[in-house]
């Protein structure tokens, strides 16, 4: 087993492990965001009830509650933006994994001697190459989307 093959296999495992760890971290953060959403909803409901029920309370109290409610809405919007970014990251990870799998399949066909390739092998190689280009284009679209989003936030 040549050294370069072992190196490629090791690098593939390492990158797969990195993707797995990133996916786990994203999943944890999405769960945290979900919990925070629920907490913000509960706080918002309490503040809305206070504002509706306490019409006779001092104006400064009502202003304080309104400001708290606006702060909760802003916090919720920030979390929604983060959640959206994380969902894009999840899609990107899936495409990255798909690209690695296609790379491995393509490498098998490309390492085969041209004289030993059957027409089916060549057809399969072309199909994998086509799929690989599609995946790369999808990843490119996601990256452009993230960049546009980042620029619009600035």
Topology:
Blueprint: H1 3-53, H2 59-111, H3 119-153
Helix pairs in contact: 1-2, 2-3
Coiled coil: 23-50
Protein name: MICA1 monooxygenase
Pfam family, one: bMERB_dom
Low-confidence stretches: none
Total strand segments: 0
Structural domains: how many = 1
Mean pLDDT: 91
Oligomeric state as shown: single chain
Number of helices: 3
Q: What distance separates the N and C termini?
A: 52 Å
The main pleated sheet reads as: none
Q: How large, in whole angstroms, is the Cα Rg?
A: 25 Å
**Helix content estimate:** over 70%
Structural class: mainly alpha
General form: elongated
What share of the residues does DSSP label as strand, in percent? under 5%
Secondary-structure element sequence? HHH
Pfam families: bMERB_dom
Protein name: MICA1 monooxygenase
Domain BMERB: 13-154
GO molecular function: monooxygenase activity
